[in-house]
């Protein structure tokens, strides 16, 4: 069932790419249909999952000679991200089907997105390092094609190349780390559960930190954290709206998910020793991201930089969870839970924001905030949704962002009070940032680069609103999500404390 | 003394095939020489089948210990004819109706036989003979096109090949003098007490030959010139098939050398590092896709040599053989794309390929990303196993350098992929995936040119095969053996 969930989009993608004569409506229905089935499948997986261990597990030999297997399964860490992936891809499918102006070469675009969905789902379900790596790399190739093929702006090809090179460098570092883990394990294996149960490189001197360094660099590029974030703004600016949404909502999570799934449980000793590094990197990313965002005149670049900020919070929490001394277990569990909730929350909110930015581009051909003004008049629904997304993004109570950030700060405060206090400043700036953006776009004298025409079309509304509704649902009734994440977070904390 | 003619059926089939093709071709009119080509293809396939049937047999040596029948030979016997078959297929368009169509096939068969013999040789003298058999047909093959560039390619290949062949014979003589034998089993014992300096000289001289065949530094000079000068099918053969035999031969020779006397692992690691680094750095500035591929094959030889630096350790042979198979299919796929579009001699000319020939562009992308080592292609699996074996063999630093090199290689492969896949073009907004044609498309007539259908088919087949081999790596690894016999 899990394999079906992972590979169904890929099968649809193959049908789409091979079947040249397919009419455009048929492409739309197939894309939307498969994207609609995926959340249902993930929901079924969620309902039938009886935690706290690994459920829906499949473990087949794949490369027995090399110690890698086709091992997939879900637990409290991966289920929320699988659900997020399915939901965001559905939103992108709906968004891209909004009729005029039609997406260029829709058939290949849809095939590419479906294939990309498989790599994302596969990564969050993978319990084998090589399988994880395969999906990690394929997602880079897929995203490269999305940006290079469907990006806008003269720089699209260059931005795509930059994205590819940076993240590929990261993936090679990651692969080195994985091979290091493989060589150190006895018997040699790439299986994440086996490596977690019996972590290699414990008490091994310099090898553990070096392997952690390789893995952390790989994941940090993808996350991205300061100073590895430079690929992010151009990639986001030039990607098509749906591409940016997936890139920010899902692909960035591959990095943070990797920290929780691989780096922390498999290298606990090295993680504890160097947890402070991750705290510092997290805080610097959080503050740097938000300050640079403040300086942006482009709405989309601004959102892109807030991603750096939000991912910084995640790293802060994970680093704090590694500082065993001076804090109790409950706080560390809270921090890790908050980090995972933040991944989901950020995915929903940023996905919505990027789709909204796409609508802005669609109507006026520019992201420059100075080109706009008084948009609340002609486009009230657009203004309302953007305002909701902005408030969710700045962590207002009632939205998922608040739950996540509250837990992150509450969990980290005991362990790293100064760092947490500094990071809290980030929230303040974020609030100002979003309010200022709202102010510039929607209030004041009406100003538009060209006549905007109608307010949101149904497809646009249907793609953005559910993401925000989910964020609101998590914000108001977080229990159903936390109940799944918390046991898994507790497991991670126990594993790190070994 | 084991004299078992039946044990050598795959090799004999290749030899009979060469003779039969030559005879058939001599009696056929020029327009019907494809029959000879078909005969050559049939014999290659027959050799492949015979090898597959013989593979489960017991590991042993035959003919007084001069020829080894083990997992490594079995693998070479399968990979080499399969690669040669692909070369014949991708060459179809180029050689069809040519005056020297039969010659091409005969040379391919003889070169393949030489490569298989190189892989199986378990005796220095047989190794030398196999070297000659694997080299001489290739000189002719490089010059097969009979143009100035081809002549230059052939001459360069010949001069370097003869020089290094003689060096290799010198090494053979020195090692014979030190060890008192030429077959590997006796040599391994005889060399253990040899003086270090003499052993080093003999070894280095001996390695010159196989390193030349493998296209590794410092015997790599012929590669880019031969690749860009020879016809594309010949270049595909030159850079693929001899490597298979040469690297297996090197592996066998290295395991004979006494490690306590000579630290050959460091030497091989140094050769690997310089080969991959030099190949990659030199590939940067290339604008001719064929020269780029030529340097890319040099860098691939560097990665392959990593497995030799840990020769004899667990999984080293298995990973080498896997990588060889993966390299052969991926490299041939990339050459097949070049063969399908022989008129595109610059990277920029590939602009727009994705729009006009989506399948060819997809095959090119898969093969080039495959050569980088992107999952889930076969070369990724090969690299993964080679890297793992090397790390496991205590050379983590070598793995780090190789990863860095992989990164560097990404740049130049992307220089080819990027124009091929570019959907954008300056000017009017695209109208979707309409059929090519119309005034706006005239500038890109090169990328839209009708490809050679056989070569294009080979490219797509090779790209699919690299994906299938990547997915089925587990199964293939299970078939490969990790034991050598002497």
Offer a few descriptive terms.
heterodimer; A: 498 residues; mainly alpha; 2 domains; two-stranded antiparallel ribbon; B: 486 residues; two-stranded antiparallel sheet; 19 helices
How does this structure look, described?
The complex is a heterodimer of chains A (498) and B (486). With 498 residues, chain A is mainly alpha-helical. Chain A folds into two domains: 1-269, no CATH class; 274-498, no CATH class. Helix content of chain A is 73%, strand content 3%. Chain A has 19 helices and two strands. Chain A has helices at 2-18, 24-48, 78-96, 106-125, 129-150, 156-184, 192-197, 207-222, 232-238, 241-266, 268-273, 275-294, 299-322, 329-364, 380-393, 400-413, 417-442, 458-476, 479-496; strands spanning 55-63, 68-74. Chain A is globular, with a radius of gyration of 21 Å. The mean pLDDT of chain A is 89. The two termini of chain B are 14 Å apart. Chain B is globular, with a radius of gyration of 22 Å. Chain B has a domain at 264-427 and 438-486. Chain B has 19 helices and two strands. Chain B is mainly alpha-helical. In chain B, β1 (60-62) and β2 form a beta hairpin. In chain B, α6 packs antiparallel against α9 (222-229) and α13 (316-340) packs antiparallel against α18. In chain B, strands 1-2 form a two-stranded antiparallel sheet. Classes of the chains: A mainly alpha (498), B mainly alpha (486). Chain B: It catalyses: a quinone + NADH + 5 H(+)(in) = a quinol + NAD(+) + 4 H(+)(out). Chain B: Keywords: Cell membrane, Membrane, NAD, Quinone, Translocase, Transmembrane, Transmembrane helix, Transport. Chain B: Residues 427-448 are annotated as: Disordered. Chain B: Its main location: membrane. Chain B: The chain crosses the membrane at residues 6-28, 35-55, 75-92, 104-122, 128-145, 157-178, 198-223, 235-254, 266-285, 292-314, 320-341, 361-382, 394-414. Chain A: Belongs to the complex I subunit 4 family.
């Amino acid at each position: 069932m899990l394999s079906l969930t992972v590979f169904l989009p890929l099968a649809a993608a193959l049908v789409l790419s091979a079947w040249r004569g397919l009419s455009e409506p048929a492409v739309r229905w197939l894309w939307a249909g498969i994207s609609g089935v995926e959340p249902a499948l993930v929901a079924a997986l969620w309902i039938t999952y009886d935690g706290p261990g690994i459920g829906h597990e499949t473990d087949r030999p794949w490369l027995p000679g090399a110690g890698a297997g086709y091992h997939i399964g879900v637990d409290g860490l991966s289920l929320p991200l699988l659900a997020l992936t399915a939901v965001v891809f559905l939103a992108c499918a709906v968004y891209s089907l909004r009729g005029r102006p039609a997406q260029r070469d829709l058939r290949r675009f849809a095939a590419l997105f479906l294939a990309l969905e498989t790599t994302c789902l596969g990564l969050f379900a993978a319990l084998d390092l090589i399988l994880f790596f395969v999906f990690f790399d394929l997602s880079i190739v897929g995203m490269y094609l999305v940006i290079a093929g469907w990006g806008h702006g003269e720089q699209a090809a260059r931005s795509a190349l930059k994205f590819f090179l940076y993240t590929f460098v990261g993936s090679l570092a990651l692969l080195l780390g994985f091979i290091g883990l493989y060589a150190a394990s006895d018997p040699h294996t790439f299986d994440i559960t086996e490596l977690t149960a019996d972590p290699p490189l414990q008490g091994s001197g310099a090898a553990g930190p070096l392997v952690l360094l390789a893995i952390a660099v790989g994941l940090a590029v993808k996350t991205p954290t300061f100073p590895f974030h430079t690929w992010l703004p151009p990639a986001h600016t030039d990607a098509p709206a749906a591409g940016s949404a997936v890139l920010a909502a899902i692909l960035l999570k591959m990095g943070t998910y990797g920290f929780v799934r691989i780096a922390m449980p498999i290298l606990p000793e090295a993680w504890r020793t160097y947890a402070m590094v991750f705290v510092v990197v997290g805080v610097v990313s959080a503050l740097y991201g938000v300050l640079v965002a403040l300086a942006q005149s482009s709405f989309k670049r601004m959102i892109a930089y807030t991603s750096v900020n939000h991912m910084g919070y995640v790293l802060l929490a994970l680093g704090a969870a590694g500082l065993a001394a001076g804090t109790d277990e409950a706080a560390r569990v809270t921090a890790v839970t908050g980090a995972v909730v933040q991944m989901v929350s950020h995915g929903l909110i940023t996905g919505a924001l990027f789709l909204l930015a796409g609508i802005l581009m669609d109507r006026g051909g520019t992201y420059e905030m100075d080109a706009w003004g008084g948009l609340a008049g002609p486009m009230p629904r657009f203004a309302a949704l953007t305002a909701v997304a902005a408030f969710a993004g700045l962590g207002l109570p009632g939205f998922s962002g608040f739950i996540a950030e509250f837990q992150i700060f509450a969990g980290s405060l005991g362990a790293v009070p100064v760092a947490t206090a500094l990071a809290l400043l980030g929230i303040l700036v974020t609030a100002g940032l979003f309010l200022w953006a709202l102010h510039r776009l929607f209030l004041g004298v009406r100003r538009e680069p060209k006549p905007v025409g109608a307010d949101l079309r149904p497809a646009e509304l249907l793609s953005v609103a559910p993401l925000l509704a989910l964020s609101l649902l998590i914000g108001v009734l977080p229990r159903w999500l936390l109940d799944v994440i918390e046991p898994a977070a507790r497991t991670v904390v126990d594993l790190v404390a070994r | 003394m084991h004299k078992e003619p039946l044990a050598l059926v795959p090799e004999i089939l290749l030899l009979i095939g060469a003779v039969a093709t030559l005879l058939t071709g001599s009696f056929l009119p020029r327009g019907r020489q494809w029959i000879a080509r078909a005969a050559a293809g049939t014999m290659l396939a027959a050799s492949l089948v015979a090898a597959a049937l013989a593979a489960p047999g017991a590991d042993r040596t035959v003919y007084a210990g001069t020829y080894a029948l083990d997992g490594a030979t079995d693998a070479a016997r399968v990979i080499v004819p399969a690669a040669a078959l692909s070369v014949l297929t991708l060459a179809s368009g180029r050689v069809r109706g040519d005056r020297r169509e039969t010659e091409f096939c005969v040379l391919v068969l003889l070169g393949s036989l030489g490569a298989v013999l190189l892989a199986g040789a378990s005796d220095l003298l047989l190794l030398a003979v196999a070297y000659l058999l694997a080299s001489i047909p290739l000189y002719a093959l490089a010059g097969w096109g009979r143009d100035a560039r081809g002549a230059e390619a052939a001459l360069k290949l010949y001069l370097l090949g003869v020089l290094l062949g003689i060096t290799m014979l010198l090494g053979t003589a020195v090692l014979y003098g030190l060890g008192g034998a030429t077959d590997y089993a006796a040599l391994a014992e005889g060399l253990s007490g040899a003086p270090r300096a003499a052993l080093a000289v003999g070894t280095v001289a001996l390695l010159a030959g196989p390193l030349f065949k493998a296209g590794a530094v410092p015997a790599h000079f012929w590669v880019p010139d031969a690749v860009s000068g020879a016809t594309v099918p010949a270049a595909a053969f030159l850079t693929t098939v001899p490597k298979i035999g040469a690297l297996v031969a090197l592996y066998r020779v290295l395991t004979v050398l006494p490690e306590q006397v000579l630290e050959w692992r460091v030497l091989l690691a140094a050769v690997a590092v310089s080969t991959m680094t030099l190949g990659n750095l030199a590939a940067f500035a290339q604008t001719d896709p064929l020269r780029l591929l030529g340097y890319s094959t040099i860098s691939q030889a560097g990665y392959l040599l990593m497995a030799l630096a840990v020769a004899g350790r667990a999984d080293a042979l298995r990973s080498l053989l896997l990588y060889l198979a993966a390299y052969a299919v991926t490299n041939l796929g990339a050459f097949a794309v070049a063969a399908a579009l022989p008129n595109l001699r610059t990277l920029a000319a590939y602009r727009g390929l994705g729009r006009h020939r989506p399948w060819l562009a997809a095959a090119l992308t898969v093969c080039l990303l495959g050569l980088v080592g992107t999952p889930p292609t076969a070369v990724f699996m090969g690299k993964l196993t080679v890297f793992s074996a090397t790390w496991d063999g205590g050379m983590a630093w070598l793995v780090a350098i190789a990863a860095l090199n992989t990164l560097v290689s990404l740049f130049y492969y992307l220089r080819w992929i990027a124009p091929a896949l570019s959907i954008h073009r300056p000017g009017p907004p695209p109208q979707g995936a309409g059929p090519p044609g119309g005034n706006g498309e005239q500038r890109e007539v090169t990328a839209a040119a009708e490809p050679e259908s056989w070569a294009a088919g080979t490219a797509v087949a090779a790209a699919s095969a690299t994906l299938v081999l990547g997915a089925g790596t587990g199964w293939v690894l299970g078939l490969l053996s990790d034991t050598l016999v002497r």
